[in-house]
């Protein structure tokens, strides 16, 4: 016997369909983000997308964004100290990063412009070099034990942040990167000391191969091309440290850069036409940011800072709104901070109390005036 909807149910259903048809998705406000002035753009033309970079300072790390298309440097308002090693999610809306906790470095995720911060790892060991799986549901990273041995793990990006161990090969293993089709896992290992080398695991067959085992020559910090046909890596041969490309189909490497001193941390642009990297031009371990155009291997200077620019990720540009500069007369600040505009929030003794309100600015155990000696 065929059943028919009762009239009252039919009316309710029709109103529901109409409501869904007429419902317009709410407007998504663009994130409010501040410009930063601790990175200088140095003549690069407009390039596609946005780079998340790490400023590697003597007193800790911070994350900045370089909007390449609009030539702006932006803050990442991290509530977690020591934020570094950013990695964009596949949709570009979030980043994974390393933050410093009382128990050591842990992996966090958040919206790219701040907000929605989640702690992904909860370990008493060191976690580092995160990357996002292409499907967007996991973050991969290394976890180092107290014997300085590290394996590759993956944690879900939503609670309860289930963690799984991917490698169990011994030694030190770091910088995991999944291929765009998620079949191959690329990582760096020191199992064949004294050099670092690059290995690949076929995650279907579970077979591991190490195509770049260079004896005394280190190969490290590899990153996949957007189509998964190649990866870029750093090759260290004596004092020369340059970028190379490895092609999966031919199992051959070709040199990409030949600059002075060292090049590290290479990442591809989303369109696959450029590679950004950190370059130490003087040999003083102070890195600036450059891009190499793959069509002709032209190297393009992009940015420099008073500290090193390292550990980056490249995504398509995100829409945002620039927040007002609350310290227009102070070139070092965009907001007052603890000490106000015109006075740096310097903390000489690193006790989390800036000098401007610290009665004992050179003694970390004390901060009240009159009790310094």
Features:
disordered N terminus; 2 domains; 373 residues; mainly beta; Neuraminidase
Summarize the helices and strands and which ones pair or pack:
Elements: H1 7-22, E1 32-33, E2 39-41, E3 50-57, E4 60-67, E5 72-75, E6 84-88, E7 94-101, E8 104-111, E9 118-119, E10 126-132, E11 138-144, E12 150-156, E13 163-165, E14 173-178, E15 184-189, E16 197-202, E17 208-212, E18 218-224, E19 230-237, E20 240-247, E21 252-255, E22 262-268, E23 274-280, E24 288-293, E25 298-305, E26 308-315, E27 321-322
Parallel strand pairs: 1-27
Antiparallel strand pairs: 2-25, 3-4, 3-26, 4-5, 6-7, 7-8, 8-9, 10-11, 11-12, 12-13, 14-15, 15-16, 16-17, 18-19, 19-20, 20-21, 22-23, 23-24, 24-25
Describe the protein in words.
The chain is mainly beta. It has 2 domains: 291 residues, Neuraminidase (6 Propeller), CATH 2.120.10; 36 residues, no CATH class. The chain contains 1 helix and 27 strands. The strands form 7 sheets. The chain has a 5-stranded antiparallel beta sheet, with no helix packed on it. Strand 7 and strand 8 form a beta hairpin. The chain is globular, with a radius of gyration of 24 Å. The relative contact order is 0.12. The N terminus is likely disordered.
């Amino acid at each position: 016997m065929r059943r028919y909807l009762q009239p009252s149910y039919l009316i309710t259903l029709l109103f529901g369909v109409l409501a869904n048809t007429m419902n317009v998705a709410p407007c998504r406000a663009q994130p409010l983000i501040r410009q930063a002035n601790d990175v200088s753009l140095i003549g690069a033309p407009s390039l596609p997308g946005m780079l998340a970079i790490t400023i590697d300072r003597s007193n800790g790390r911070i994350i900045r964004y370089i909007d390449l298309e609009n030539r702006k440097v932006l803050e990442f308002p991290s509530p977690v100290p020591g934020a570094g090693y950013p990695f964009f999610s596949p949709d570009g809306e979030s980043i994974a990063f390393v933050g410093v906790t009382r128990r050591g470095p842990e992996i966090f995720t958040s919206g790219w412009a701040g907000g929605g911060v989640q702690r992904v790892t909860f370990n008493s060991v060191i976690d580092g070099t995160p990357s996002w799986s292409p499907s967007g549901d996991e973050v991969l990273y290394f976890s180092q034990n107290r014997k300085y041995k590290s394996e590759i793990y993956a944690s879900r990006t939503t609670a309860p942040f289930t963690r799984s161990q991917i490698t169990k090969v011994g030694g030190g293993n770091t910088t995991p990167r999944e291929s765009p089709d998620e079949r191959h896992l690329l990582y760096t290992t020191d199992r064949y000391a004294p050099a670092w080398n690059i290995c690949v695991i076929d995650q279907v067959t579970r077979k591991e191969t190490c195509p770049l085992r260079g004896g005394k020559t280190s190969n490290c910090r590899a990153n996949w091309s957007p189509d998964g046909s190649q990866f870029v890596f750093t090759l260290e041969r004596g004092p020369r440290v340059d970028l190379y490309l490895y092609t999966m189909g031919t199992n051959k490497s070709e040199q990409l850069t030949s600059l002075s001193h060292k090049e590290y941390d290479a990442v591809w642009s989303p369109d696959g036409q450029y590679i950004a990297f950190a370059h130490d031009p003087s040999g003083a371990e102070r890195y600036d940011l450059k891009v190499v155009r793959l069509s002709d291997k032209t190297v393009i200077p992009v940015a420099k800072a008073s500290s090193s620019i390292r550990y980056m990720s490249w995504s398509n540009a995100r829409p945002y709104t620039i927040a007002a500069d609350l310290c227009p007369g102070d070139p070092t600040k965009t907001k007052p901070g603890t000490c106000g505009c015109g006075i740096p929030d310097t903390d000489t003794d690193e006790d989390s109390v800036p000098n401007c309100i610290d009665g004992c600015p050179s003694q970390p155990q004390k901060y009240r005036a009159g009790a310094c000696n």
